[in-house]
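User: Is it possible to get a 3D structure for a protein together with its bound compound? The compound here is magnesium ion. I've pasted both below.
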Amino acid sequence: MTARLIRGTEIAAEIREELAARVRALKAQGIVPGLATILVGEDPASQSYVRAKNKTAHDLGIHSEQHNLPAATTEAGLLALIAACSANPALNGILVQLPLPRHISESRVLAHIDPAKDVDGFHPVNVGRMLLGEPCFLPCTPHGIVAMLQRSGVATAGAEVVVVGRSNIVGKPVAALLMQKGPGGNATVTLCHTATRDMAAHTRRADILIVAAGRPKMITADMVRENAVVIDVGVNRIGVRENGRAILAGDVDFEAVVEKAGAITPVPGGVGPMTITMLMVNTVLAAERAHGLAE
Ligand SMILES: Nc1nc(=O)c2c([nH]1)NC[C@@H]1CN(c3ccc(C(=O)N[C@@H](CCC(=O)O)C(=O)O)cc3)C=[N+]21
Ligand SMILES: [Mg+2]
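Assistant: Yes, that's possible. Here is the predicted structure of the complex:
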């Protein structure tokens, strides 16, 4: 049997519809949620992600401003812009697109964002609160994955979840969310990485396999349990079409794994659109919190 497709595009659209109602409720009180995106340099993939974020914000009626800085921007210059955005009451959310140029310290930059406006959930205070299960901004991709599982009826309680990849923006936080006590959590989580011995022995035991390794098609069918739920976080540009658009591949060998899994996310149209939508969720939540309308 071919796996059921978990369509991020559709789930994200459903969430955005609910969000639009919250934006309307805020506007009825004279509140317009505001998002600042900051991009340093001219990486084409980063440019297209940031454009997509601003467009989605605009479509939802969220005020958004895009700051494009040259690659040669100094760290001090970037910190000054972040301080200005942090002090601007019209802005509820600040997103600094990663990766940053090598001469800028990502950790210093992320720690400079007001935690109350850290809609990416990357500030150390939000990372700590997430681990403690306290109110915070959840990082967008992990939050999107949990929302996607919940809305497609995949039970996580008691499930064997295997995460491949230990990045700060996906692997570590998605493992933390799924092991948390409560709805959307309660899973038994294993995290694999480049030093894991016999990775396939772990992945084959997974009821839910989440792959965020950044290696195109690394998960082959023999590594997947029959009827497993497979969440593919990879967005690898593996070539260019004649029309100039990138050819994308996930970290999962989709054509083979779709025949073995019970459910699978496509690339594109899977986790990616969820990531952008959860950023909007956090921006609206930030606006609600700023006006005492949410915890
Ligand atoms: N501060 C920060 N926050 C981020 O959330 C962040 C970041 N930096 N740096 C890079 C990663 C990557 N990321 C993606 C967002 C959307 C898609 C997405 O929408 N992908 C489409 C395909 C889009 C395409 O054609 O490339 C899809 O999968 O359907 C992918 C990847 C956010 N990131
Ligand atoms: Mg099957």
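Residues 85 and 291 are 17 Å apart (CA to CA). The chain has a mean pLDDT of 97.
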